[in-house]
C-alpha cells in the first residue's frame, strides 16, 4: 500500500480553498518576512535558493548584527517591491491562494521582485482544475 505523506503545494491549494492558511511562504504572501542566514553570514530574503544579485543581499551577520541587515536599504527595497507585486495580483480571482507567487521565481525570470510570477498562468489553470474537482467531490456529499 502506497502512503502519501505530504503533497505540497497541492495540500496547501486544497486547504486554501477552505480558508485554512497554507504553509508555503509564497502562498501566504509573507515572503518578505522570511530570512536566510548562509554559512558565510550573508542574510538573504529567501531560504529556498540563493538569489542571483547582491541587490537582494541584506547584509552579513559577521560584519553587523541581524537587526542592521533586516533594516538595510536592500531589505526595505525588497519589502516595498513585494507590496507592489501584491497590489497588481490582488485583482486575480486566485489571489487568496497564491498572493502573487514566489519571489525567487519573479527575480530569476525578470530580476525584479515586483514582476509577475512567470508561472502565474500555470498556477491559474491548476487552481481552477483543483477547485473544480473539489466542488465536484463536495456535490457527492
Structure description:
The protein has one domain. The chain has a three-stranded antiparallel sheet with strand order 1-2-3. Strand 1 (36-37) and strand 2 (42-44) form a beta hairpin. It contains seven helices and three strands; from the N terminus they run ααβββααααα. The relative contact order is 0.13. The chain has helices at residues 10-17, 25-28, 66-70, 73-89, 95-98, 103-110, 120-139; strands at residues 36-37, 42-44, 59-60. It starts with 9 loop residues before the first helix and ends with a helix. It is elongated, with a radius of gyration of 17 Å. The chain is mainly alpha-helical.
Spatially, the strands of the biggest sheet line up as 1-2-3
Radius of gyration: 17 Å
| Mean model confidence by pLDDT | 84
Gap between N and C termini, in Å? Answer: 26 Å
Helix content: 40-55%
- Helix/strand-derived category reads mainly alpha
User: What is the succession of H and E elements?
Assistant: HHEEEHHHHH
Largest beta-sheet characterization: 3 strands, antiparallel
The geometry reads as elongated
Question: Beta-sheet strand percentage?
Answer: under 5%
Number of strands: 3
Low-pLDDT stretches: none
- How many helical elements? 7
In total, the number of domains comes to: 1
Amino acid at each position: 500500500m502506497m502512503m502519501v505523506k505530504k503533497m505540497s503545494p497541492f495540500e496547501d491549494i486544497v486547504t486554501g480553498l477552505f480558508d485554512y492558511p497554507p504553509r508555503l511562504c509564497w502562498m501566504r504572501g509573507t515572503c518578505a518576512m522570511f530570512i536566510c542566514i548562509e554559512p558565510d553570514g550573508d542574510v538573504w530574503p529567501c531560504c529556498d535558493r540563493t538569489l542571483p544579485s547582491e541587490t537582494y543581499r541584506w547584509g552579513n551577520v559577521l560584519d553587523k548584527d541581524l537587526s542592521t541587515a533586516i533594516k538595510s536599504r536592500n531589505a526595505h527595497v525588497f519589502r516595498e517591491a513585494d507590496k507592489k507585486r501584491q497590489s497588481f495580483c490582488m485583482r486575480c480571482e486566485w489571489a487568496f491562494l497564491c498572493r502573487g507567487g514566489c519571489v525567487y521565481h519573479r527575480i530569476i525570470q525578470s530580476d525584479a521582485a515586483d514582476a509577475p510570477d512567470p508561472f502565474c498562468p500555470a498556477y491559474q489553470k491548476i487552481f481552477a482544475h483543483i477547485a473544480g474537482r473539489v466542488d465536484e467531490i463536495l456535490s457527492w456529499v
